[in-house]
Amino acid sequence: MNFENIQINDGKNGKKVGVLLSGGVDSAVALYLLLKEGYDVTAYHMKTVRDELYINKEIKHKVCCSPSDTYDAQLIAKKFGVPFKIVHVEDVFKNRIIDYFIDENMLGRTPNPCFFCNDYIKFGVVMEKALEDGMDYVASGHYARIIDGRLHKAIDESKDQSYFLASIKKEKLQKIILPNGLFTKEQIRQIAADIGIHVAQKIDSQDLCFLPDNDFRAFFEEHGAEVQPGNIITTEGKIIGRHEGLPFYTIGQRKLGIATGNKLYVKSKSAAGNFLVVAPLNETYQEYMAVSHLNLYEELPGRFSSTVKIRKKSKELKCEATHKEDSLAVTFKEPAFAVTPGQVAVFYDGDKVVCSGVIEQ
Q1: What topology is assigned to 228-279 in CATH?
Q2: Which residues does residue 162 pair with via DSSP β-bridges, in sequence order?
Q3: Which CATH architecture fits 12-194?
């Protein structure tokens, strides 16, 4: 592919853009592509939790915002000769994301902190800081596209991140640039290697930045959340075992830690009764869901057909939706596995995002 012929955003050359520079390959190449297009670039690197967390915890998976990421981001900014600014968002991240994560878990729901981090933090607090600094736009290394002020899937659907970006309010999109949406992941890594970016083969971040050791039990204890064991019951109400705490399970989970003789899956969770309801696989499929807290990208009719993703790695499902005020009543064309309260539903018209919302039931 001839990278020289790629045009990121015609007519915006010379404008100031703040790039959300994480220290990974994606944002590094996004920064390079924008410089190549003639933008005046400043790098913004956010710190969501204090560095002591990564010093005191065993890091079991690659997460963003760690001290090593900050070091890599500084090297990238230095390589390209752009100003580098660290934005400390630890307090607001604790209030808006970590507390939300804890509260939802204690209510027996399965939260999606990365989805809301994009709206509240990356394209919220950090974006506001960049615009206050005089930036005309804010850019990131996410794989998605903005076309005529609308959010679309990336060219590389295997790496598409429009699901996670669908929390961003429509009016913000005119100020956001997503260069990587025009490329595949392999092309981004090749560009990085060709121009000598030292993180060209760096592993992508996974999971939650505030849980680097993946120790959920210790996390809840440290934050004063009392997680109690309780009963595991069948749909008929028969007690068949004990669970270790509702936050450690999610809808559709197979691993229960008990021997039942049958393959059983988590069908629902009750915070009020502190119990898990389990059922055979065929009983974990649903024909209906309710969605609230809508983020709309267009005016919705009273009833419409769409496809929907109900988790980040799920395939899109055909559905019919009825819109009323700030909610949707959704009927699937075919039953959907493990519809999970607290998770996010993102609705599409082809590769265009129509709206998103939180699954209630």
Answers
A1: SH3 type barrels. (2.30.30)
A2: none
A3: 3-Layer(aba) Sandwich (3.40)
State mean pLDDT over 250-271: 89
pLDDT at 12: 57
> Binning pLDDT at 50, 70 and 90, where does residue 61 land?
low
b/e 118-130 (16+ beta carbons within 10 angstroms → b): bbbbbbbbbbebb
Q: Which residues are catalytic?
A: 117, 209
Burial 138-174 (b: 16+ CB within 10 A, else e): bbbbbbbbbeeeebbbbbbeebbbbbbbbbbeeebbe
Q: What is the pLDDT of residue 1?
A: 39
* CATH no. for 284-359: 2.40.30.10
In the predicted structure, residue 59 carries a pLDDT above the cut 80? no
- Per-residue pLDDT, 204: 79
Give per-residue burial for 290-313: e unless 16+ CB within 10 Å, then b: bbeebbebeebeeebebbbbbbee
